[in-house]
What does this fold into?
Amino acid sequence: PQTQGYAVDVAQLGGMYANNIHLIGTEHGLGVRNAGHIGAAAGEVKITTEGQLVNTGYLGAKQDITLQSQQQIENQTTGVIYSQQGNLQATSKQKGIQQQGSLIAKGKAQGKGNITLKAKETISQSGESLAEGNITYQAKNIETSIDSVLAAGVQFTPTATTEEKTINPHSEQGQTLHLIADRHTIAHGQNLASDLIQVEAAEIDLSQSQTSANRLTLLARQGDIYLANSEILIDQTATLRTPTALVTPNAQLQAQHFIVQANALNNQQGYWQQTGNNLLDLQLVQGINNQQGVLRTLGDFRYQGSDFDNQQGVVTTPHSLFINTQQQTFNNQSGLVSAQQDIQLITATLNNQQGVIQSQRNFNLTAPLLNNQQQGKLLAVEQIEITAQQLDNQTGLIQSNQANITTQQLDNRAGIIKATQADITAQQQLDNQATGQTGSLIQAATLRISTPILLNQQTKAKNETPTQGLIANTSEIKTDQWFNQSGGAYVSQALNATVTKLFNNQQGELLSLNTLTLQGNHLLLDNREGVIESRGNLTLDLKQWENIGQVKSAANANITIHNDFRLDTPLTVDDKLTLTVDNHFSNQTQLVTGKALAITAASIENPQSSELSAQTTQLTTDSLQNEGLIDGIKTVIVAHQLDNLGSGRVYGNHLAIQAQKLNNLSKQDNAPTLAARERLDLGVGTLTNYDHALILSQGDLFIGGELDNHHYATGQADFVDNGSATIEALGNGNINTQRLWNHDRHLRLGIHTDKERFKEYAQNNDSQRYRDGVEGELDWTRKSRKAWFAFYDGRRSPSQNDWFGWEYIRTTDTTTIEHRDPAKILIAGNLSLNGDQLHNQYSQILVGKTLTLGEQRFRKNTKNETLTANHVQLINEDLIGEIHRRDDGQSFMMVAYKDKNPIRPRYGHRSENYQDYHHTHPIEYFNFKIVDNTIGQAIQPTGTAIRQQTTAQQAALNNLQVDLSQSTPLSAVPHVRAVLPNQLLPQASLYRLNLATNSHVLVETDPRFTNKRQWLSSDYMFNALRADPQTMLKRLGDGYYEQRLVNEQINQLTGQRFLGNYTSDYEQYKALMDAGIRYAQRYQLIPGVALNAAQMQELTEDMVWLAPQTVTLKDGTQVQVLVPQVYLVKRDVDIQPTGAIISAKEIDIAMNGIVKNSGLIAGRHLTQISAQNLENYGNTILLPIN
It folds into this structure.
């Protein structure tokens, strides 16, 4: 009938059973419906219809089932199509296939068991398709619901009640699920195959599906592959190919190997796991979105494409990882990228805020813009290499065994960079400033930093263990400007910093437990309140240094300044400090080093209160000006010109100086000191020692022209100019100079003028004159023309008529000495004095033992009669005075006359013929040192006008403001000799005044020179006499100064360096005090009470006694002190030197030239002079004492 919908309706038939069933419906538009049971017990079922084919019942066959329809084929929910040993095939030529029931095909054993669905339109399935063999769907569209099952390679296992269905083990010999669609394939259900699942479509959607197979191939020809919320488990290879996007959000994908070809991957919250060790290669030109997703592989990982968004995502592999975003962005915020082997990441921008990128081996990162903020971590076990333009590691962490970082700008504020070896290059700036208590740390065993600007402020350690800043075992830093204000850089082995322009270390720390080097030819160092410290060697090479701060080295320090250098804060160096300054070095502090100090500069200034000191001190310069202290066990100075001025002190156990010009000059009433505790060597061109300046050696003294390699004086000096100053040695002396001038710079002469009236008579104009009123008187009588001169002494009186007469005033001008300040050369031992011009003018050369003059020494001249010494002159000159006399008045004639009384004329005499009278006497010369040759008598001044010079000298002493009112005049005891001790307070910088009330002495010797050695002093006398020094006056000086006062008095009294056979100051001073002690005990005397004349008469031996004297300070204040007074019992060998002196125990002068002497040459044991000519002038003394 026309209303019948189906040509064959098995539901109406009830059932159809046969070995083979073939249903063919040829009526157009009419189909076949099976709501019953169609079964072919032994053969096949084949249904062909022009209409719709609907199955809601059971359709089964032993063999193949073939369904073919021009229209829709439906296997509805209750429908079962079951091939027991054959293939199941359904074809809709014009429409689609709807599969809501069950399709089952067995027959794998027979090589069958396949399910094949083909439709022109859509294959739609919500049911199950189970095949022992393959399943193939082919249609315009394929759509399976979440409830559908597509299973190829099913193993059917009968049980007691049912049949268990499982997928055979996956293998390449397994079965295939093949879905082919012209447009889209949507498979939301279970997609299972024992081997391959292959989906081919324009678009593929396997979202929410459960897909499992041995292999998987998804081929999307035009659209996306959409796998959201799916679970895909593939034993072997999963091949995913799409020209657009691969979308896997919330999906779980697992395969031994993924082969992906797509433009983009969206794996938000998705999970990819590649279980094999093949390369996971993602070539995605439009990038990856892996937010909260996981990409995990057991093989290498390679990504090349556009943006990679891995926010909260995970990319991990036990092998290598390669990512290249093709100059796009890699966003790893809170993400994890991990590889057991190498990582190479190439991207334009990396955002790793709170993210982690870590490699168990090497990590190579190229990202022009790199953001590793907010606890971002870039980690590698072996090596991390970062190339960027801007690397922002604020609060981030970069850590590796070796870190190589190259960037334009590196911001590590609150960040951490840790490595065993770190090489950091920031081509514009590295910012490691601290913004809090944590981070801002760059730490490595070996750290190398190269950047134009290094910012490391506020990173200084808060306790003993630094946690911020730059920390390393070995560090090498190269930068133009390093800002380290309150910053810290700490190394345990070696810090080597090259800074070309500026290092600002204000309140900062640069610390090394071993060596430290900071260098830069144009470097300005500002270390205000900063610390630069090393336990090993320290090297600073700078252009300029401002604000010294603290600089310490427990070993050596080598500092070079390529400019002027002003040091106002001490440098602490335990071993040797080598300081080199290209220009001027000004030391404004106490620079004291442990072992050695070597300074080289164009010029050196060491002003008052400054100090340069070490065990070995060596200064090399063109010009050295010292008003402070230079000291050392060995002190060596090499300079073109050395000016030791005022308060300047230069000390050394061995002091050696080489200078073309050595000036030891007073300044503002302060006199400088050059002093050696053991040996003094001066290699000089010109030595100028003026105005109470002191050159002293407690051992031997050598003066020559230069220093040899052992710093000993050798050669010949040009000029030794010792003017009103002292050169002294307590040992031997050797002075070799072309010219020596030992002179009094402050000798001031005066003129004493006497006027005396004279009236003289003579018988003739040119005869003997008789002084009227002195020798007698001219007299006459009125009875005779004759007049006579009556002598007071009774001699016969000459008489005659007329007498010549003169009446005039005689003016006598006599040279006087108003002030003396002689130079002194004092040698306690032997002196060898060699030179061409040796001039001792008005001064003293005192030698304790033997004096040898001249480069040659000749005791005998057996054959060589002619001796040549290149016309060398030895001049020992004393001061020559002059007496000028001039008479001014009238001459007249005393003539006899007879008066005109005619009765009794009388005779008389009258003066007439008056004429002006002027007469100048010849100049009379005298020597101020007047000593006769008499032995055994006191030397008394003559009655000539020379006495006035003595008065002038006393006036000079009065100018010293010494109060003698309480002392017995020394001249009152003629058999005891004494002179006033020198009460002029010393100006030499070797001494200083101590006005403190608790000090026992007024003049203290610099303890830096004496090394705090206790010298024998008058405490020895106080202790012997049990006198309490606390109740006594302050003593004038300490032991060292007291011995000098004693030596000066002995020299003034005897002209000798020592008394008798004494050869040391100590023995001599002790013996004199012992004598004073014996005398005090005998007469019950107390130190500090002056001796009177009667007490001095009782002296029987030389002694020292402490007498009170008053000295005046610069401000006019007077202080009473105790002074050691030397008393000598008169002996025949004593002399009284006041002029130029050469004295010694033995004197041997060997000269090939001329010896000129107008002073005193005195030798106790031997005086031998060998010269071509000997000239002994005036009243001077050439005295062989014994």
Q: What stands out?
A: Helices lie at 10-13, 947-958, 1007-1010, 1019-1024, 1039-1054, 1065-1083, 1093-1097.
